[in-house]
Amino acid sequence: MTLRAASVLWSLIIIVGAVIGLYATFVAIVAIPALQNQVVYLNKVTLTWFQDVSVPEQWGFLRNQVTPFTLETVDGESLHAWHILPLGFYQRHEDALTREPAGIAHDITDRLCFQLLRDDPDSLLVLYFHGAAGTLGSGWRPPSYRAMSAASPEKIHTIAIDYRGFGSSSGSPSEDGLLVDATTLADFALNTIGIAASRIVIFGQSLGTAVGISLTHRLATMPEPTLFNGMVLVAPFADVELLTATYRVVGTIPILDPVARFPKLLTLLNSFIISKWASKDKLAAFVRHVEHLGQKRQTYHITIIHAEDDYDVPWAHSEKVFGHAVNATSATGTSFADTERYKSQFGQLLGAGGRIVEWKAERGLIREEITKYGLHDRIMSYPVVSMAVARAFQSIVQDVS
Predict the structure, then answer these.
(1) Under a CB-based contact definition with an 8 Å cutoff, are residues 274 and 36 in contact?
(2) What burial class does residue 87 get, using C-beta atoms within 10 Å of its C-beta: 0-12 exposed, 13-18 middle, 19+ buried?
(3) pLDDT at residue 266, as a whole number
(4) CA distances (Å), 274 to each of 32, 176, 236, 239, in order?
(5) What is the pLDDT of residue 399?
(6) Structural domain boundaries of the chain?
(7) What predicted TM-score, i.e. pTM, was given to this entire model?
(8) How far apart are CA 209 and CA 227, in angstroms?
(9) Nearest-CA neighbor of 186 among 154, 156, 220, 152?
(10) Which fold would CATH assign to domain 56-394?
(11) Mean pLDDT, contiguous 10-residue spans, the chain (401 residues)
């Protein structure tokens, strides 16, 4: 080997060693609790750096079609929220709404949007939980709010929050903290607005599916259970442990793929992760609990939606979430193989539209929709979501006994 060749080889060894060292440092940082939040929640990546989320008109909404306000949590945090009016409903009250002052409502109960929602016996409400990173106004979220009411523009209101540590909300995110935030929103809807749980559907996307599932599970397992009319879960993940092995930044960079190739090393890393978000297990626990409540009418309606071209969270996560939920519907359980046979026999193939399967249990229904297209975020604004929300509301007080 010549001196020049040896020099080049040594330089390559140094570069490779440096890359390995940097990656090992990154993995070590991920294991530090104080720094995990930015990996799991990305809450400081607002994606609306030069926009004021107190001015929803920047995202194409009409004057006072969206009312920003704040909610106070029991542990002292302040959450920024939006109340989004459906277009048909807004049209009926446009003159009165446009005469009100714009901007943050210091007391939302004094605003017309709140009073109209409270006093309309036909109104329906979506409690909206967004994914990691960004704010209420980021990315595909504003088009998604419009999709919530697209199938019923006269009735379906939406209230969305920025979790603690996101956007203008105070505090720092954590699994327990986000559940408090979700509970705060639910309490506002049920007790301040006074809208019945049977007129509420939970919507979540990505991280928001974990938040929505945790909220639904918590309220269903209280001494006096509260059961919402339905859940629409878009691009859920089974749990953080599986997510660490499959997640791709911006859909392309599998940051922990090298670690995932060594199961023991991945298990060790996961042991340091504080936020577990075990959605597949919590949803199964919710279904199992409701199936044994003994009520004689349908008490849950769950729709799981995922796109095959989702490169951030692979659609295999939805398969696991669906499988665990189905397994929980009977005392003897349903194996993965049996679930797959059921899909083959009773599922509906829609060509380029993907495929659908419904599992009808004694006390509810679990529906899985795997679309061909939609990516991770764009799908939130698609008609498949609008239809899922409408379908959940249509199941109100449906007797399945």
Answers:
(1) yes
(2) middle
(3) 56
(4) 10, 10, 19, 12
(5) 42
(6) 3-30, 56-394
(7) 0.89
(8) 16
(9) 220
(10) Rossmann fold (3.40.50)
(11) 63 60 54 67 88 95 98 98 98 97 96 97 97 96 98 97 97 96 98 97 98 98 95 95 64 58 60 81 97 77 97 94 97 91 96 97 96 97 98 68 36
Buried b (16+ CB within 10 A) or exposed e, 26-47: ebeebeeeeebbebbbbbeebe
Q: Which distant-in-sequence residues (6+ apart) come within 8 Å of 263 by Cβ? A: none
Predicted local distance difference test score (pLDDT) of residue 400 = 38
The Cα 196–Cα 193 span in angstroms is: 9
Q: Which residues contact 272 (CB under 8 A, 6 or more apart)?
A: 30, 31, 32, 33, 36
Amino acid at 359: W
User: Which pLDDT score, from 0 to 100, does residue 262 have?
Assistant: 55
Contact between 47 and 134 (Cβ < 8 Å): yes
pLDDT at 50: 86
Q: Is 139 left (phi over 0), alpha (psi -120 to 50) or beta?
A: left
Q: Tell which residue, 277, 284, 122, has the closest CA to residue 211.
A: 277
Which residues have a Cβ under 8 Å from the Cβ of 289 and sit 6 or more positions away? 217, 220, 221
Tell me if 69 sits within 8 A of 104, measured CB to CB: yes
d(CA 211, CA 128): 10
